[in-house]
Design a protein that fits this description.
The complex is a heterodimer of chains A (166) and B (438). Chain A is α+β, with helices and mostly antiparallel strands and 166 residues long. Chain A has helices spanning 2-30, 74-88, 109-129, 152-158, and strands at 63-64, 97-102, 137-143, 160-165. Chain A has four helices and four strands; from the N terminus they run H-E-H-E-H-E-H-E. The chains are: A alpha+beta (166), B mainly beta (438).
Chain lengths: 166, 438
């Protein structure tokens, strides 16, 4: 009989201990995780990662033309030389350039589209002559469709070639 | 001799004396190889103020008679406006008539009209209502003894009223001049709203019923008529291509580079494209198939337009500056047409084989409208000193030339006679690239 009682007590103690363990585990699971309050804490120093220097993207400045002309003047050539030197300095230019020519509104629509493209081709030819890969430079024209000039100064701004990523 | 033949003989004599061009195949090529063309002619039309006033046909056009004042007023206004726009005619309108023209019904008191200088009179009467309208029209000539030389009755809904009036005017013009008139035909043009935004519109040649016909946002331009549709060019981020109203702005033909400015001549379209790297003239079927390259020059070749007998006119700067050229529609027999001025563009060919004329935009200080006779090389200037005037379009009978003008205070689409006289604005507001339905 005593032996039986002892056995029962032993089982009860074990069950109690097991139940306590279970409750304890559940309580732990329900506790909200402590918020990451780093404001007053000193962050651990991040491991140093080797970051490659970010290259500034090269920009082909917009160049401007004389009336009914597709010839590059000295300032246009200088701006294009600067762009080519920038591309040369890049390890991987990933060049895909679209040159869009434009005209002032004082012409006929069809001829101005062709004139705009002729200007873009003049810029492309110059860039290629300076060593840029011609296969990655394309041309198009908006003719006088984007022109907004109403006087000589405005018309001078309308006659341009602008570069953009293709 | 009709009235108009008389007028043209007199005017031609005055113009030839005033312009004094002579044959003009006279481009000068100096030692540096740069061409130096003779300048375009000044506007030197001589008007003899002592000449008899018999060069115009003075036509009395009172308002129509009838109970429906809306329809009588509209009908009369259309008749009066058509004759106002037609070279060689002068309207004696209702305000000039002092006697009670309505009391005579469709008859006419020619004596009373003769006192006003009328060479002819139109009388008309409207019956019925908007759903079932009937209009009777009579045309009397002063020499006709009170018997109408033309009488027509039109029946139908009131929506047809303007068309009936145009038809009758055309018949009257046919009686007076020997050639049916151009009224009731349509013109198309482009209008720039702001940079990067342009649409194509159509309207009656008298400017009535202006409506947008192009689809989509952005840039739609360079319209032309062909096969029951209005064709135009769309400039989009996906490319610049040719479309028409039938396909709702979708691409009919595009491809590498820019494809633009179609002319529909018979069963093929002719257009300019940079697909070769340079702007050349191509042709294709109206479905955009069967591409053929017609020009092979180092210069810019643009603006093809249909001519008579399977010919085309176009613009090329292959000799240094843009000039008008002509060729057969297979690209052979290329000939230079203009030899005066340094910037001649946007040609349009008169389709009447009896009138070998090409009209074009020529730049002096500004753009102005000129015609050149292909046989005599006579040049006529139609505009001068009123801003830029460009993009001419011949009416089907070539007696009228429509063009766009940015003249100060009154930009728009204008109509003019071949001599530059009788210029009238028919559409107000910014307009470009006018084309006339054939």
């Amino acid at each position: 009989m005593k032996t039986h009682l002892n056995s029962s007590l032993t089982v009860l103690v074990c069950l109690t201990l097991f139940a306590t363990m279970l409750v304890g585990c559940k309580k732990d699971a329900e506790e909200p995780e402590a918020e990451d309050t780093t404001g007053s804490e000193i962050p651990e120093p991040e491991p140093e990662i080797a970051v490659e220097p970010v290259e500034e993207p090269c920009v082909v400045e917009t160049v401007y033309f004389a009336f009914d002309s597709s010839e590059l003047d000295s300032s246009a050539r200088a701006a294009l030389q600067e762009a080519v030197e920038c591309y040369r300095g890049q390890q991987d230019p990933g060049l895909s350039l679209l040159l869009t020519g434009a005209a002032d509104p004082r012409g006929t629509e069809e001829y101005n589209i062709a004139l705009g493209e002729r200007r873009a081709q003049a810029v492309r030819s110059y860039l290629v002559s300076l060593g840029l890969d011609g296969s990655s430079v394309s041309t198009t024209s908006v003719g006088e469709e984007m022109a907004s000039g109403t006087d000589e100064a405005g018309w001078a701004r309308d006659r341009n070639v602008a570069g953009s990523e293709n | 001799m009709t009235w108009i033949e008389f007028r043209h003989r007199w005017l031609r004599a005055a113009l030839v004396l005033g312009l004094a061009f002579g044959p003009i195949a006279l481009s000068v090529v100096p030692a540096n190889g740069q061409e130096e063309a003779l300048p375009l002619p000044e506007d030197k039309i001589v008007v003899d103020i002592d000449a008899p006033d018999e060069d115009v046909f003075r036509i009395g056009v009172p308002n129509l008679i009838g109970k429906s004042t809306q329809h009588t007023a509209t009908g009369g206004a259309v008749l009066q406006n058509d004759f106002r726009l037609m070279p060689g005619f002068r309207v004696i309108g209702p305000t000039s008539v002092r006697h009670d023209y309505a009391s005579l019904g469709l008859a006419v008191d020619l004596g009373a009209w003769a006192m006003l200088g009328a060479n002819g009179v139109i009388k008309g009467q409207v019956f019925g209502d908007a759903a079932a309208l009937s209009v009777e029209l009579r045309f009397y000539q002063s020499s006709g003894g009170g018997v109408p030389v033309l009488r027509r009755t039109y029946r139908g809904p009131a929506t047809e009223l303007r068309k009936w009036m145009h038809t009758f005017v055309n018949e009257v013009i046919g009686v007076v001049t020997g050639t049916y008139g151009p009224f009731g035909t349509e013109i198309a043009f482009a209008r720039k709203h702001r940079p990067g935004h342009k649409s194509v519109y159509a309207a009656g040649m008298d400017g009535y019923g202006v409506r947008k016909v192009s689809s989509g946002q952005g840039i739609s331009m360079l319209p032309t008529f062909g096969k029951g549709s209005i064709w135009y060019t769309r400039m989009t981020k996906q490319g610049t291509f040719i479309t028409n109203t039938r396909v709702g702005g979708k691409r009919v033909i595009g491809g590498k580079g820019i494809t633009m400015a179609p002319a529909i001549c018979g069963e093929r379209m002719y257009f300019s494209s940079s697909r070769s790297g340079n702007y050349e003239i191509y042709s294709a079927s109206l479905e955009g198939k069967g591409l053929r390259r017609l020009t092979r020059s180092r210069g810019i070749d643009v603006s093809p337009t249909c001519g008579p007998g399977g010919k085309l006119a176009f613009v090329s700067d292959r000799h240094g500056s843009p000039q008008i050229f002509a060729m057969k529609n297979d690209g052979t027999n290329v000939q230079r047409v203009t030899f005066r001025g340094s910037h001649n563009q946007t040609p349009v060919w008169c389709r009447d084989s009896k009138q070998p004329l090409i009209a074009f935009s020529g730049r002096d200080k500004n753009f102005d409208i000129f015609t050149v006779n292909l046989e005599t090389q006579e040049y006529h200037r139609l505009t001068q000193g009123q801003g830029d005037n460009k993009d001419p379009a011949f009416s089907p009978d070539c007696r009228l030339i429509a063009f766009s003008s940015n003249r100060r205070g009154s930009p728009g689409v204008y109509l003019s006679g071949q001599d530059g006289l009788d210029q009238n604005q028919v559409i107000a507001g910014t307009a470009e690239t006018v084309r006339w339905a054939r």
